[in-house]
Amino acid sequence: MIKKTLRCVNGCGDMAVTLYEGVEIDTCPECKGVWLGNEELKHIISTEDEAWPEEEIAKVLEKTGKAGVPDDEIHREIPCPECSALMPATNYQYSSGIIINKCKNNHGVWLDEGELDKIQIYKEHWSHK
Ligand SMILES: [Zn+2]
Ligand SMILES: [Zn+2]
After folding, report:
1. 38 CA → ligand 1 middle, Å
2. DSSP string covering 70-90, please?
3. Which ligand sits closest to the CA of 29?
4. Most buried in the list 1, 66, 86, 99, measured by CB within 10 Å?
């Protein structure tokens, strides 16, 4: 299947398809944002082939446990690259402290730079406890 080229939701321009842990994802070369289809996200969080540095883990976990979405994130309007519907900001898994934008038509999620790593760290930490 040939993927169509998507535009970055931050208005940078075309995104490029890159490989992340064996999965093709759309990444913006400018702002380093990432667009993930639902299947791609599921696949990435179910593979654990990276070891995260301790300080990186500590930084992510410091922010967890807070439910809700901060004001500056709530007012950000990000259109889905597939259907252009505005994607509301949500707190990943309710209280991870990682704010992502999810298409209400279920196309996928938008992650800003570094958020994909955060989700993986969060997920791996809690699944090992
Ligand atoms: Zn961008
Ligand atoms: Zn959509």
Report:
1. 20
2. -HHHHT--EE-TTT--EE-EE
3. 1
4. 99
